[in-house]
Amino acid sequence: MRHHRASLGLHPLAPVHDQHAQDGQQDLFWSRVRTTLREPFAEFWGVIIMILFGNGSVAQVLLSTGQAQGAPGGNGFGIWALGVMLGIYVAGDSGAYLNPAITFSNCLYRQLPWRRFPTYFIAQLLGGMVGSLIVYANYISAIDHYEGGHGIRTVPPATQATAGIFATYPQPFVTKASQFFSEFIASTILMFVIFALKDEANMGLAKSAHFFPLMLFFLIFGIGACFGWETGYAINFVRDFSPRLISYGLGYGKEVWSAGGYYFWVSKKSPSGIPMVAPWLGCMFGGFLYDVFIYTGKSPINSPYMGLSHLFHPRQEIRRKIEAEKELHMV
């Protein structure tokens, strides 16, 4: 078990100290699987919860349009923030990243093992797909009714389009530059504030771990209120790509990739790939800004040549990492 966890970049000793691992359950096959993949499972289910609340709220608001009795949740504003908060509670054991760009930035700036990234990324991607399938299964009859017939599936800017339940589509008048900037600045703010909330030297907010999900609720709510209208504020690759892929397979067709002037896809017609690229660049830039101007802890930015020493003196950096890992295991 320890060997398998180490190969995935997961801490090999973490499950040993779990109080639930002392009652003999670890001898069961599924218990061993669960213990080995506990963090990826947490990310998987955390993303599912996030998508269920987020896409579910969009579906209910859209599909109840025009009815005397609208959606019980009002206009659905802020439910994505609720989904993120609850997803973090579910995935707390893994770090609750729920977003590949955030995971990547933590690998880049906060010493999260790089070997852990592919495992988390796959778990997050699959979680987005499963969550989207559940939402679709729940609302399939309502979608048929709203679209005007069984099996009819349309994509914005069609009048009765329902593809927006699953993925983001930009306003038709917004230029490519504005689309990219909207996603980029929203993702930058997201990562910048998350690093601030996790910084123990910054008002001690990190010590109040139980309040972190609530703080993320306000953060996502604020980003949606200020930067959500033009593009739908994907700010998360798996929040957009996974549901988009599922909607493509469920009959919405290739238009899910080409809508909005190839808003999503990186092609010769449009080299932007905005919700696919901007969240990664924005989160990396947000982490960079925080570490340059505020963070005083261990970070490549606070190392010689702002981390470029890894390129100039790779052997020396490898030795430092090996020594640090040895000290960690000795403690």
From TrEMBL:
InterPro entries: Aquaporin-like (IPR023271), MIP (IPR000425), MIP/Aquaporin (IPR050363). Its main location: membrane. It catalyses: glycerol(in) = glycerol(out); H2O(in) = H2O(out). Keywords: Membrane, Repeat, Transmembrane, Transmembrane helix, Transport. The keyword Transmembrane applies. GO terms for molecular function: glycerol channel activity; water channel activity. It is a multi-pass membrane protein. Pfam families: MIP. It is found in: Membrane. The chain crosses the membrane at residues 44-65, 77-98, 119-139, 180-197, 209-235, 277-296. One of its GO terms (cellular component) is plasma membrane. It comes from the Eukaryota. Belongs to the MIP/aquaporin (TC 1.A.8) family. This is Aquaporin-like protein. It comes from Bimuria novae-zelandiae CBS 107.79.
